[in-house]
């Protein structure tokens, strides 16, 4: 696997571009993504399916920058949405609506209508009440909605509780014990074509075991649904495969997993869909920041940087770990300390009691594996303008989202 962030002549690069060169022109902080790494990871999924009818639908919520979506669209990707705003982005980026699936537990009538009018592939529906609303909207528009039921297979994804979705106690999906009745009732509703089932059990799975367990339950379910005379032509296995955030973690064998899915579904006449987000973009991105100050409080040593939790909230929200690398490689020893941002919250940290490379005032550093659930979760908290996004294309780079200005901060407000 290509790792886009490596030292060349002691300077941290993203592919063919020194990150310090970008910093010199754009200032800090900024997000940077490698085009080549994103495409390589997308192709790993796509190619593993081989001849099996399939569609890889990138989960837009992981990284919704138009340039990222556009390069995936050109490579043939479909998209998995969780809002009308994401559909707007996909269309603006040139995505093909026929390759789009619309997920999410709380879609509105406006979102149903937008999806129906643009001709998306299908809606992943999560409750009988939602089926009834979608049926009403489709009937009013004299259109037909293709639907897959999102099944909650009651599998423990063994991941962080905030990103685990496949247990009965989570809000997601329809209890697998109730799916047959809901499917049969839904198939009778006007304006709907029930044609598939989907499941998505959680995120950051470093082991495909729980996904294989869910697949077994889904295949048994498909057998029962077909036995009852119901039509199933597609199976959406969701997303959720993880990435190594820490050196001791290893990335799951994506290709092997997909090939096993193909083997287990061979001859069933199912189009396979998958919805990876993190595993396509996380390792392709980094957040680059500058050290403002160092300070000591008692025994504690702090490195204060110009990026903060409003730019990258994963450490605060999920206790997530991001490796921190100085842009200039150093052979000096490591010291223990915290890396923190300027936001007025004790939860504003990127690392706690971590052995850190030498980082002095003015030095630049990169927080790695920040391409997924990074910029998309950024906010303007503390009235901090959101940072720019940069796309590296081989040995060139361009800004694909401008740094926000103070005027952007107050846009739409009145006194
Ligand atoms: C978030 C989400 C995904 C993507 O999950 P990753 O862990 O980023 O691969 C896929 N499908 C659904 C329904 C989601 O909510």
Task: Supply database-style keywords.
28% helix, 2 domains, binds pyridoxal-5'-phosphate, TIM Barrel, Lyase, Ornithine Decarboxylase, Chain A, domain 1, alpha/beta, eight-stranded parallel beta barrel, nine-stranded mixed sheet, 415 residues, 21 strands, single chain
How would you describe this structure to a colleague?
By secondary structure, the chain is an alpha/beta fold. The chain folds into 2 domains: 5-33 and 282-409, Lyase, Ornithine Decarboxylase, Chain A, domain 1 (Beta Barrel), CATH 2.40.37; 104-274, Alanine racemase (TIM Barrel, Alpha-Beta Barrel). The chain contains 12 helices and 21 strands. It has helices at residues 19-26, 35-48, 66-74, 84-92, 109-118, 128-141, 179-187, 209-227, 254-265, 278-281, 314-318, 406-409; strands at residues 5-8, 11-14, 17-18, 30-34, 54-59, 78-81, 100-102, 122-125, 145-152, 174-175, 192-198, 234-236, 271-274, 285-297, 300-305, 324-326, 335-340, 349-356, 364-368, 389-393, 396-401. The strands form 3 sheets. Strands 4, 14, 15, 16, 17, 18, 19, 20 and 21 form a 9-stranded mixed sheet that branches. Helix 2 (35-48) runs parallel beside helix 9 (254-265) and helix 5 crosses helix 6. The chain starts with a strand and ends in a 6-residue tail after the last helix. The mean pLDDT is 95. The chain binds pyridoxal-5'-phosphate. Residues 59, 61-62, 80, 82, 103, 200, 203, 238-240, 275-279 line the site of pyridoxal-5'-phosphate.
């Amino acid at each position: 696997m290509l790792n886009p962030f490596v030292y060349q002549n002691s300077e941290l690069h993203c592919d063919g571009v020194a990150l310090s060169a970008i910093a010199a022109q754009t200032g800090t902080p900024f997000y940077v993504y490698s085009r080549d790494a994103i495409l390589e990871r997308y192709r790993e999924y796509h190619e593993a399916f081989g001849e099996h009818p399939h569609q890889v639908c990138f989960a837009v919520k992981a990284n919704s920058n138009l340039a990222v979506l556009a390069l995936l669209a050109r490579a043939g990707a479909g998209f998995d949405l969780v809002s009308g705003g994401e559909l707007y982005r996909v269309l603006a980026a040139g995505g093909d609506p026929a390759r789009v699936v619309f997920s999410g537990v709380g879609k509105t009538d406006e979102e149903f209508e937008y999806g129906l009018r643009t001709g998306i592939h299908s809606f992943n529906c999560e409750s009988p009440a939602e089926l009834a609303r979608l049926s009403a909207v489709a009937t009013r528009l004299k259109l037909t909605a293709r639907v897959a039921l999102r099944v909650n297979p009651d599998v423990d994804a063994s991941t962080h509780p905030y990103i685990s979705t496949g247990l009965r106690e989570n809000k997601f999906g329809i209890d697998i014990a109730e799916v047959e009745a809901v499917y049969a009732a839904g198939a009778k509703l006007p304006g709907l074509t029930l044609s598939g089932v989907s499941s998505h059990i959680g995120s950051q799975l470093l082991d495909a075991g729980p996904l294989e367990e869910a697949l077994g339950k889904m295949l048994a379910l498909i057998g029962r649904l077909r036995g009852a005379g119901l039509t199933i032509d597609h199976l959406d296995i969701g997303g959720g495969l993880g990435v190594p955030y820490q050196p001791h973690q290893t990335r799951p064998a994506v290709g092997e997993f997909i090939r096993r899915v193909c083997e287990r579904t061979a001859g069933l006449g199912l189009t396979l869909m998958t919805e990876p987000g993190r595993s396509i973009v996380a390792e392709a991105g980094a957040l680059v920041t500058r050290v403002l100050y160092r300070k000591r409080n008692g025994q504690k040593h702090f490195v204060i940087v110009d990026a903060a939790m409003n730019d990258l909230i994963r450490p605060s929200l999920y206790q997530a770990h991001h490796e921190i690398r100085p842009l200039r490689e150093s052979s000096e020893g490591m010291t223990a300390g915290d890396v923190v941002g300027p936001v007025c919250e004790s939860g504003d940290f990127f690392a706690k009691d971590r052995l850190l490379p030498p980082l002095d005032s003015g030095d630049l550093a990169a927080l790695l594996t920040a391409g997924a659930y990074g910029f998309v979760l950024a906010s303007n908290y503390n009235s901090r303008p959101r940072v720019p996004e940069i796309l590296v294309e081989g040995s060139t780079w361009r800004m694909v989202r401008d740094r926000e200005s103070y005027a952007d901060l107050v846009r739409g407000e009145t006194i």
